[in-house]
Write a structure and sequence with these properties.
Rossmann fold, binds 5-O-phosphono-beta-D-ribofuranosylamine, 218 residues, 6 helices, 2 domains, single chain, alpha/beta, two-stranded antiparallel ribbon, 7-stranded mixed sheet
């Protein structure tokens, strides 16, 4: 069973979905540590409630970004973390971190990448007038939301949507999609070929149930 480290900055609803999907047996892994750059993150409480170790790292007390990331990597290594899951973590990771966990860091983003990377994503989606949005789980590379895509889910953008209503529709899909991607990783089913991530054996209909749209090869 592999050790996961989850990095958060806020509410941690994606962390909760990973906790729940480990408990149900959908993901065969263990969360070894939850790390936050924000001591008030509600996700820290979610972790403590189920007796997962937590660490808070004070970003402003580091002179250089790379020192901060080296410190995070040291914590992850101390907990024997093999897979890093970024779940609403608001810091861009630097090469120190990426090199230590090459192709072992996942992120979830609330849009259909490569559209709308970065911050204020739902606002940008609404302002642009896109008719569909969704979420993307991808490997993390040196860029901002640019790494190879593992899985995506799609939601409609409705005429009366606000940032809040769109975010909440996307989040519901995030809570299904991230556990699926983590499951695929922990089952060694992902291979990166250039920018493409191949899944073998392919995602089954049952695995993708409740994730929109359902997969079909025909
Ligand atoms: C999610 O929308 C995620 O896609 C983005 O940050 C948000 C985090 O939400 N990266 P939560 O903290 O998991 O509730």
């Amino acid at each position: 069973m592999i050790n996961i480290g989850v990095l958060i900055s806020g509410g941690g609803s994606n962390l909760q979905s990973v906790i729940d999907n480990i408990k149900s047996g959908y993901i065969n892994a263990r969360i070894a540590v939850v790390i936050s750059d924000n001591k008030n993150a509600y996700g820290l409480i979610r972790a403590s409630e189920v007796e997962i170790d937590t660490e808070t790292v004070d970003f402003p007390s580091f002179d250089h970004r790379s020192d901060y990331d080296a410190h995070i990597v040291a914590i992850l290594k101390r907990y024997d973390v093999e897979l890093v899951v970024l779940a609403g973590y608001m810091k861009v990771v630097t090469p120190v971190f990426i090199d230590a966990y090459k192709n072992k860091i996942l992120n979830i983003h609330p849009a259909l990448l490569p559209s709308f990377p970065g911050l204020h994503v739902q606002k940008k989606t609404l302002e642009y007038g896109a008719k569909f949005s969704g979420c993307t789980v991808h490997f993390v590379d040196e860029g901002v939301d640019t790494g190879p895509i593992i899985a995506q889910a799609v939601v409609p953008v409705l005429d009366d949507d606000t940032e809040e209503s769109l975010s909440s529709r996307i989040l519901k899909q995030e809570h299904k999609l991230y556990p699926l991607a983590i499951r695929l990783y922990t089952q060694n089913r992902l291979t990166i070929e250039g920018r493409r991530v191949m899944v073998s054996p392919p995602i089954s209909h049952d695995e993708r149930i409740n994730i929109a749209p359902p997969h079909s090869s025909g």
